[in-house]
Amino acid sequence: MAAAVVYTAASSPVPARSTPGYASLCLLGAIPQCALRESGGTGIPVPLVADPPSSWADITPPSGQPNPPGRYLSAMAYDPATHYVLLFGGYGELGLGPWVFFQDTWEYSGGHWKQLVANTTCTPTTCPSPRAGAMLAYDASEHGMILFGGYRYTPAITIISFSDTWLFAGGHWTNLSATAGTPPSPRFAGSMVWDSYDNYVLLFGGILSPVVSAGDTWKFDGTWTNLTGSVGTAPNPRDGAAIANSPSGYIMLFGGEHGGVLWSDVGGCSYSLVAFWFFAGKWSQMAITPTCIGQPESPSPATSVTGTYPPCGRVGAGLGWSPPNNRFVLFGGQ
């Protein structure tokens, strides 16, 4: 899949200043009035009524400038406290063969990559161990980025999953595992995001073993708490689901797979279970039609489709909130 699909939240009122998480939403750029107030402007931007023109551009740094080595299943998220994108870990080859796992940390800001922590400088007490598939999310309460879980392979190609909790703030990593309470079970490829309405980091699902996906819901507010059983109609077990927050505090979770089978209209999985909201501590199933839209990468060119059809079920897609467009944007996936 390579076509972008937009989805407008059904209910996205501008939150009051007293709303939990308002300050973090301002930092995230999710409340237009914050920027307007700082610039002295007035009024509220009008959302676009049509898809914006394509504006993709290759911004890979020229040869000789810092650039992370190619990798897969790295952890990456925006840090509004420092206004840069943080990248950690993943695996690649580096000319050394498969299964080279990274533990380096990079920032992307102002059109440039900068390595903050190198693989060679890491120790067990200063960095998360080399891994891929870790979950990474901004935490306004901790004023930094929370990283949880991930996996790596042993030389015998046995999977080792992690359940440690780390904080990246002030340019360095801190292991919070000793004070984080009982954590979720070891996993990778779960869905984790800052919940601005409830003021905690939300974690759902992930891969427990090659054919077993988790279906539990957790919060992290300095310590881990298992919310499973008290969060309404929770999504079915899955991993690789896309997740993102919005200005209204509504969190969207879309797609994913269970035991290697996509939550979609194929493979025997129910398409009605492909999308969910999380708001005020509760999950709710999103009402969408059984007909979906998917755009192959090739040979057909990307097209814009109007109507109320959702994107087809997929795993590993990118999802985020676009303040200028006042809507969620979903891209790609398998």
Task: Describe the protein.
The protein is mainly beta and 334 residues long. The protein has two helices and 23 strands. It has one domain: Neuraminidase. The strands form seven sheets. A four-stranded antiparallel sheet has the order 2-3-4-5, with no helix packed on it. Strands 6-7-10-11 form a four-stranded antiparallel sheet, with no helix packed on it. The chain is globular, with a radius of gyration of 20 Å. The N and C termini lie close together (6 Å). The relative contact order is 0.16.
Overall helicity: under 10%
Intertermini distance: 6 Å
What do the pLDDT scores average to? 80
**Major beta sheet summary:** 4 strands, antiparallel
Tally of contiguous helical segments: 2
Q: pLDDT under 50 segments (min length 5)?
A: 1-12, 35-50
Classification by helices and strands: mainly beta
Shape: globular
**CATH architecture designation:** 6 Propeller
How many whole angstroms does the radius of gyration measure? 20 Å
Strand order of the largest sheet: 2-3-4-5
The succession of helices and strands, N to C, reads EHHEEEEEEEEEEEEEEEEEEEEEE
The proportion of residues in beta strands is 25-35%
Instruction: Quote the CATH topology.
Output: Neuraminidase
Task: Name the CATH class.
Answer: Mainly Beta
Count structural domains: 1
Instruction: Count the beta strands.
Output: 23
